[in-house]
């Protein structure tokens, strides 16, 4: 490795490891035994992405590290909850009134969505159902991240207006 790369790695470790460790402990709980492993995985992932050129400098390095950290924490939690999903639960029959209310609300939301212009439906679909980040939605639609935020917020405003009694 070149000396500058070694310095960059050292700076990354010194500057961002404590921040990553704090976020991981905060999300998972300080007593979780997987915290250090997850921090190491995140640092490895950051280094790998830096070396492969995935960080293009369009945002700050801190934002890049924060995004990778957040996504890896979410992935970790999803992995752990998948294991928990298979635990048998006692039969729990829903209240008929509650079931009816949920069905009615679901139908109202479907109607409200169907009344939206296609561009609003598409942005909501990509953001909420495909679970793409605002940046990914922006790339997909060929607009700015700010425009995606505006479209999502306006679409939600229209739906709320539609759902008001």
TrEMBL record:
The GO terms describing molecular function are: DNA binding; sigma factor activity
- Which CDD domains did the record assign? Sigma70_r4
Domain RNA polymerase sigma-70 region residue range list: 15-81, 112-161
Keywords per UniProt: DNA-binding, Sigma factor, Transcription, Transcription regulation
* Family per similarity comment: Belongs to the sigma-70 factor family. ECF subfamily.
Q: Which PANTHER family match?
A: RNA POLYMERASE ECF-TYPE SIGMA FACTO, RNA POLYMERASE SIGMA FACTOR HI_1459-RELATED
Query: What name does this protein carry?
Result: RNA polymerase ECF-type sigma factor
Species name for this entry?
Answer: Candidatus Saccharicenans subterraneus
């Amino acid at each position: 490795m070149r000396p500058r790369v070694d310095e960059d790695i050292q700076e990354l470790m010194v500057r961002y490891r404590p921040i990553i460790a704090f976020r991981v402990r905060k999300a998972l709980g300080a007593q979780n035994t997987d915290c250090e492993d997850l921090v190491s995985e995140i640092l490895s992932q950051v280094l790998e992405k830096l070396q492969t050129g995935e960080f293009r400098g369009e945002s700050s390095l801190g934002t890049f590290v924060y995004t990778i950290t957040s996504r890896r924490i979410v992935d970790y939690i999803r992995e752990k909850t998948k294991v928990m999903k298979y635990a048998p639960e006692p039969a729990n029959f829903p209240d008929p009134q509650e079931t009816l209310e949920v069905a009615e609300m679901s139908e109202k939301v479907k109607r409200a969505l169907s009344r939206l212009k296609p561009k609003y439906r598409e942005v909501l679909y990509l953001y909420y159902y495909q679970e793409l980040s605002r940046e990914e939605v922006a790339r997909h639609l060929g607009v700015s991240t700010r425009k995606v935020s505006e479209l999502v917020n306006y679409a939600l405003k229209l739906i709320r207006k539609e759902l008001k009694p």
